[in-house]
Amino acid sequence: MRKRIALNGNYAVAYAVKMADVDMISAYPITPQTAIVEKLSEFVANGELDASYMNVESEHSAISACIGASLTGARVFTATSSQGLALMHEILFMASTLRTPIVMANVNRALSAPLNIWNDHSDAIAQRDSGWIQIWSRSAQEAFDNTVEAFKIAEETRLPVMVNLDGYIVSHMYELVELLDEGEVREFIPSKPMENRVSPKKPRATGVVGPPEYYYEMKYQAIDAIEGSRFRIKEIDREFNAKFGKNYREIDTYGLEDAETALVLMGSIFGSAKEVASELRRNGNKVGVISVRLFRPFPVEELSKAVEGLKAIGIIDRATTPGGPANPLFMDVATTLYSMSKRPTIQGFVAGLGGRDIRPEDFKLMYRATENAGISGADRCIYVGLRE
Q1: Which CATH class is domain 251-383?
Q2: Delimiting residues of CATH 3.40.50.920 domain(s) in the chain
Q3: How does pLDDT run along the chain (388 residues), one tens digit per residue?
């Protein structure tokens, strides 16, 4: 039976993990993620979830334990944030190449220094080349739904999945969340014996040395897997939507039916951007918003179709690539549009680093700058809200 209760994003993730009937949780606390693993420890302690709960001494150990457990066929989960995700960096590449279907919630938080516990996207963006599927959540409801989907995606693609949710803005804000019926969830992602790849009954080598004669091909298998995963993710979205009455897809759009200018972004600021776009549209401005939900693999085809007919797009990054030609989301969008015969003018922005508010007037500035870029020539990047 479905029910609606007030939950923050962290608790929404924990409820989704419980419904997924995981076998092992590997936990280490870090702000603003800690409440996820605290709630899961409560579920395990009171008997609501029959799972092994492993307390470890660091995030490096947490993800390492997940790999080991996953290789035995267990359904596993962990959660982290910011410096914790950075500490996992070395192991993330192993998780994807070893094809371990781990699900991890990452509560997005700025990377130090200076020490900052507030929200931006620098932690997850820094791991964009690690071979993990990345899904972004804009609300507690999406954090719950995306986590449920993530287990099916991980197990059917044999790839790890990172579910991102903005620190504090999603992780700590309460909203009404529709909890799906647990029986329906377990029908959608049934607990089934996964392949035990480290069984003494069937010896095999895992995580071996890959000399030049073999490394290239072994690595390509993981590259090919994440490229191919986009088709299965699309199918799983359709299955989830049909079963639970949702409407998830790789990107979401607002106001594009007649728009000439649009902003491209990720995460919870979609709601603020929509409000500003609505106001501007009431005043006769033909503007829209494009929200990227699936960041890896990047939705090349879907984004290309979405921007057809637009004159200009602005790309909002909440992370930077110091010394690079442009910032991460901008580079992905620009590369996607490169082959279009008639492509819109593009303008890059950085905003909201370290939890800095992105105000309505900031969005209006970005719309104006995007429109003017086609006239005056685009700057490489405009840092919005940066004090002199």
Answers
A1: alpha beta
A2: 251-383
A3: 899 999 999 999 999 999 999 999 999 999 999 999 999 999 999 999 999 999 999 999 999 999 999 999 999 999 999 999 999 999 999 999 999 999 999 999 999 999 999 999 999 999 999 999 999 999 999 999 999 999 999 999 999 999 999 999 999 999 999 999 999 999 999 987 777 888 788 887 788 899 999 999 999 999 999 999 999 999 999 999 999 999 999 999 999 999 999 999 999 999 999 999 999 999 999 999 999 999 999 999 999 999 999 999 999 999 999 999 999 999 999 999 998 888 999 999 999 999 999 999 999 999 999 999 866 555 779 999 999 7
Among 121, 187, 176, which Cα is nearest to 148's? 187
Tell me how far apart the alpha carbons of residues 156 and 233 are, in angstroms, rounded to a whole number: 9
User: b vs e for 32-58, b when ≥16 Cβ sit within 10 Å of the residue's Cβ?
Assistant: bbbbbbebbbebbeeeebebebbebee
**CATH for the stretch 3-244:** 3.40.50.970
Q: DSSP label at 126? A: T
For residue 124, give the amino acid letter: A
Q: Where in the chain is the domain with CATH 3.40.50.970?
A: 3-244
Please report how many Cα atoms fall inside a 13 Å half-sphere around the Cα of residue 204, on the Cβ side. Answer: 11
Name the residue among 241, 251, 35, 44 with its Cα closest to residue 152: 241
